Amino acid sequence: MTQHTIAVLPGDGIGREVMPEALKVLDRVGQIFDIGFRFSHLDWSCETWLATGSMMPPDGMDRLSQHDAILLGAVGYPTVPDHISLWGMLIPIRREFDQYVNLRPVRLLPGIPCPLAGRAPGDIDFWIVRENTEGEYSQIGGRFAEGSEAEGVAQTAIFTRRGTDRIMRYAFDLATRLGRPHVSSATKSNGLFHSMPYWDERFEKMAAEYPDIRTDSHHIDILAARFVMHPDRFDVVVGSNLFGDILSDLGPGVTGTIAVAPSANINPEKRFPSMFEPVHGSAPDIAGRAIANPIGQVWAASMMLDHLGEGEAAALVLRAIEHMTADPSALVRTADIGGHASTSACGDAIVAALDRIA
Ligand code: NAI
Ligand code: MG
């Protein structure tokens, strides 16, 4: 039996409600495929911060580094400023563990109403690969001539060859692995004078190494429009930190609801653990009512399985999710997708679907 050690960080709000459902699904799929999980339950959250003044203990990163992967719920608490939760935990994990790929599937699930007219499951099914460590989100820059008429700021974007090449290589390798030999690049070389022409240059160089993969480049503005008008045209889309950030919310947006979407922060070389989480946050407006949709968290667990080399188990979990969402019964659907099921009833329905199709 293979054993995986998983750091489980439910976090705040609905993170604590959806996480048990993902663990339920992992336990069941583990029994089916003879995969063992050792879960470390870590109660690090904004509530920890309120009690102790820090989001995680001083040896937090060390402890996380002893795991094969991290499964995160969501962090954020109404009385705690968002930069505390972000810079106190999420950003250190993403950066210190060199999780330079943010990977998000964009897929219309059966039974989830699509905001785009005339689209059915199968029409929207692609992947966004976002650079997660450099680019526009840098701390380089500053404020000058403060308080005077000449006051201004400079914010510098950083694109290294190493950083640019490795995210593009990941995108091309992903397209190869998925058997979807088509990579689209998000650019803006008609506006940004240095960074995006460089991005384009590296994209062309990388494309030359993968002659079997079709490529195209889109300026970010028209690309956003194409996500809405022609989402069926995409397979793998690669973008810088800022462009990828925007696209990776637009993507799940066109598939109906962010509550079902997952996100992976990956260190592809596996030198450090990667982190898997739903796209949504801690949803304080519905927290504590047991009505949160657990699908994003369960799908994140499926992405984690794939990363751990358990591809078959990962695929089965995704199929079970699709069986569940295709079920019109209000008894298995949470309120956000038109039912009145509790979080755990929805989780149970996914487990039942697993058993039916395994
Ligand atoms: P949010 O994603 O928590 O909620 C947005 C809306 O979607 C709310 O109306 C919420 O009820 C609904 N929603 C979200 N997930 C749902 C689910 N699973 N089932 C049913 N409905 C769901 O975003 P918001 O309100 O902007 O942020 C709330 C807190 O979460 C903030 O503190 C924010 O910083 C944090 N946050 C944390 C993230 C993370 O941990 N990576 C990501 C996004 C936000
Ligand atoms: Mg975002």
UniProtKB/TrEMBL annotation:
Domain Isopropylmalate dehydrogenase-like, first and last residues per copy: 5-350
Pfam families associated with the record: Iso_dh (PF00180)
SUPFAM superfamilies according to UniProt: Isocitrate/Isopropylmalate dehydrogenase-like
Keywords: Manganese, Metal-binding, NAD, Oxidoreductase
Catalytic activity: (2R,3R)-tartrate + H(+) = (R)-glycerate + CO2; (2R,3R)-tartrate + NAD(+) = 2-hydroxy-3-oxosuccinate + NADH + H(+); tartrate + NAD(+) = 2-hydroxy-3-oxosuccinate + NADH + H(+); (2R,3S)-tartrate + NAD(+) = 2-hydroxy-3-oxosuccinate + NADH + H(+)
Function as written in the Swiss-Prot or TrEMBL entry: Has multiple catalytic activities. Apart from catalyzing the oxidation of (+)-tartrate to oxaloglycolate, also converts meso-tartrate to D-glycerate and catalyzes the oxidative decarboxylation of D-malate to pyruvate.
Family of the protein in this entry: Belongs to the isocitrate and isopropylmalate dehydrogenases family.
Cofactor: Mg(2+); Mn(2+); K(+)
Pathway: Carbohydrate acid metabolism; tartrate degradation; D-glycerate from L-tartrate: step 1/1; Carbohydrate acid metabolism; tartrate degradation; 2-hydroxy-3-oxosuccinate from L-tartrate: step 1/1; Carbohydrate acid metabolism; tartrate degradation; 2-hydroxy-3-oxosuccinate from meso-tartrate: step 1/1
EC number, UniProt record: 1.1.1.83, 1.1.1.93, 4.1.1.73
PANTHER family linked: D-MALATE DEHYDROGENASE [DECARBOXYLATING]
GO molecular function annotation: D-malate dehydrogenase (decarboxylating) (NAD+) activity; magnesium ion binding; NAD binding; tartrate decarboxylase activity; tartrate dehydrogenase activity
Name this polypeptide is given: D-malate dehydrogenase [decarboxylating]
Keyword NAD among record annotations: yes
